[in-house]
Design a protein that fits this description.
The chain has helices at 357-368, 377-385, 389-397, and strands at residues 2-7, 17-21, 24-28, 45-49, 54-57, 82-86, 89-93, 106-109, 114-116, 121-122, 128-129, 132-136, 139-143, 146-147, 152-153, 157-161, 166-170, 184-188, 191-195, 199-200, 210-211, 216-220, 225-227, 232-233, 243-247, 250-258, 263-272, 277-281, 295-299, 302-306, 348-352. With 399 residues, the protein is mainly β.
Length: 399
């Protein structure tokens, strides 16, 4: 396991929602410090070609007269929303700007790059942000979040049938996870695993007495019953606004923030749902800076991470672990004395779960600035052509 690519220059986005469709990663909305989030301007969409490692801005949808569409024809720019991919389409739900929260379902067709708003039936969840969304079969499951209209945290489960567009409230059994927002929900083995998030001492209400639960729970989709597995190993601290992703039927947790400790993290944990064991992972290479509200997507044997923020509320923000083995870097990181807006990241990182010998060799040549005269001519030419970070990233991505 090796961090192999660290590039700057992507979209500077925080609390965005992202999905992978084929070899392209799509990022929807989010915010950046200093921008206006009181208007109903159309949501922005960015795409990352994971072969070339190039980001591009996807043009906004226009009407028949060539005029950019506005809400409600397209989603308004928002944060705290969710997006899931299903059959080459992306379904976006929830989220808010600085004035309103949304409960309208939007669909982005990756083939036409057009938005639609499919009509829905059933029991629509209350508008919220900070919830989770994941796909099991042909259903999009929504859990938790903060409902603006009633000013409460949620621990409810709903699902949307993505073929019939019918919403259903799930009357679950067992003890659900506590009321929370900005948690993660991950599907493995016909179960939805929920970890982390922010709750409150007087939940479902918000009193500023935050609680960060380190327990993991899962919903069995067959029985619709919540279970609390007895876990062992190196259990991560409770946190919110982290990322969760799966590889080889294991759940990985990266980064996040604990408000009670005022700590940002850049650690990586692995949870084995078959053994209920946590393990702290220590990949080689340069780890990303500590952050929260980033996006992490797995394609094949690689995880792509981008965006997020780090802001020092006190003096306890978590630095990069000294145990990390550094390989090389191609972009500078913000310093403690930088303007706060500079902590909204525009970097992109790649974690290779099973790096090839070619990838490891390229890293070592670049890291150590080795003499390349003994290498085959085609590799010497490739190494000599590397003069910019993007070219370095594309070269490593070949492996």
């Amino acid at each position: 396991m090796h961090w192999i690519i660290n590039l700057d220059g992507g979209p500077r986005r925080v609390n965005h929602a992202s999905v992978a469709v084929g070899d392209v990663i799509y990022s929807f909305g989010g915010y950046c410090t200093g921008e206006d989030y009181r208007s109903n301007s159309a949501i922005d969409v960015h795409g990352l070609n994971t072969h070339s490692m190039r980001w591009s801005s996807i043009p906004p949808m226009e009407d028949e007269n060539g005029v950019p569409c506005k809400y409600p024809e397209v989603p308004f720019q928002r944060y705290g929303h969710t997006a899931v991919a299903f059959e080459k389409k992306v379904y976006l739900w929830g989220g808010r700007n600085d004035e309103i929260v949304c409960d309208i379902l939007f669909c982005f067709d990756t083939a036409t790059r057009k938005w639609s708003s499919p009509p829905v039936t059933g029991t629509v969840p209350g508008a919220r942000d900070g919830h989770s969304a994941c796909v099991y079969g042909a259903r999009m499951y929504i859990f938790g979040g903060f409902e603006e209209s009633i000013d409460k945290f949620s621990c409810d489960v709903y699902y949307l049938d993505l073929r019939t567009m019918h919403w259903t409230y799930v009357n679950t059994l067992g003890e659900p996870p506590s009321y929370r927002d900005f948690h993660s929900a991950t599907v493995v083995n016909e179960r939805m695993y929920v970890f982390g998030g922010r709750s409150d001492a007087v939940a479902p209400y918000h009193s500023q007495e935050e609680i960060y639960c380190p327990k993991i729970k899962y919903l069995d989709f067959k029985t619709e019953c919540w279970q609390t597995p007895k876990t062992t190993g190196e259990i991560p601290l409770g946190r919110r606004s982290h990322s969760a992703f799966t590889y080889n039927n294991k759940i990985y947790i990266f980064a996040g923030y604990n408000g009670n400790l005022d700590m940002h993290f850049n650690d990586l944990y692995c949870f084995d749902p078959d053994r209920n064991v946590w393990r702290l992972m220590k990949p080689q290479g340069q780890a990303p800076r500590a952050r929260r509200r980033q996006a992490c997507l797995v394609i094949g044997k690689r995880m792509f991470l981008f965006g997020g923020t780090w802001y020092a509320m006190g003096s306890e923000s978590c630095p990069i672990s000294p145990s990390i083995i550094y390989a090389f870097t191609f972009s500078s990181s913000p310093t403690i004395n930088a303007d706060p807006s500079s902590f909204d990241y525009s970097d992109t990182h790649v974690l290779d779960f099973e790096p090839t010998l070619y990838t490891l060799a390229m890293i070592k040549v670049l890291e150590c600035k080795l003499d390349t005269l003994c290498l085959p001519r085609n590799i010497r030419i490739e190494l000599r052509s590397i003069s910019t970070p993007n070219k370095i990233g594309r070269a490593l991505n070949k492996g």
